[in-house]
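This section describes the prediction task in plain terms. A model, or a person checking by hand, is given the sequence of a single protein chain and must write out its three-dimensional structure as a string of C-alpha cells. No templates, partner chains or ligands are provided. The sample shown here is typical of the held-out split.
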Amino acid sequence: MKQKQRNQYLKKRDSLSIEEIVNKSLEIKEKLFSLKDLWKAQKVMVYISFKSEVRTREIILELLSRKKKVIVPVIDFNKNLIKLSELKNFQKELIPNKLGIFQPSKEFLRPFNPKELDFVIVPGIAFDKQGNRLGFGKGYYDKFLSKLSKKVPVVALAFEKQLDKQIVCEKHDVPVHRIVTENEIIECK
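The expected answer:
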C-alpha cells in the first residue's frame, strides 16, 4: 500500500515542469520565511533538494545571508542514518553521494549535534494534513526526527500536488508540525 502511494505521488511530483518547480518553490520560500520560529532560529537544518523536490537552494542562500547556521543532512550508508554537517558555502562544499543527492564533501564535513537545532526543514513524497509524511521508505528521516526534542519545529516543504487526505503510516513514522505549500501553511494536528 505504501509503495503504491509512493509511486503515485512521485509520478504527480515528477509531472511538474522545471519552470513550475522553480516558481512554486519560490512561493513556498516566501511562505516559509513568514514563519516567526524561523526568524528566531539560529541553527536551521534544511535538506538539499533532489530531482523534483521543492527546491531549497534559494532558502539555504537566504539563511546564510541572514547569518544563520545552516545544517544539512549527510547520509551514513553503512549505518542507515542521517548525520549532520554545517554548510558554509553552497557553491564550493557539495558533491553528489551515491544516490545523486548533494552533501558536503569530506574536507567540508563539520559535524553538528542534532540537540542544538532550533528548526528543521524536511522533504517527503506525500503528506496529509495531520503531518504524516511518506518518504522513500528507508526510514532515514523517521530515525532522525524521533531523536529530536518535541520543541523543535519540524516543517515539511511540499507542492500542493503532494497532499493527500490520508497517508498510510506505521508506529515508527514521525509526523511533521507544519507543511508549507505554494498555497498555504498547514498547522498539523
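For orientation: The domain at 2-187 is CATH 3.40.50.10420 (Rossmann fold).
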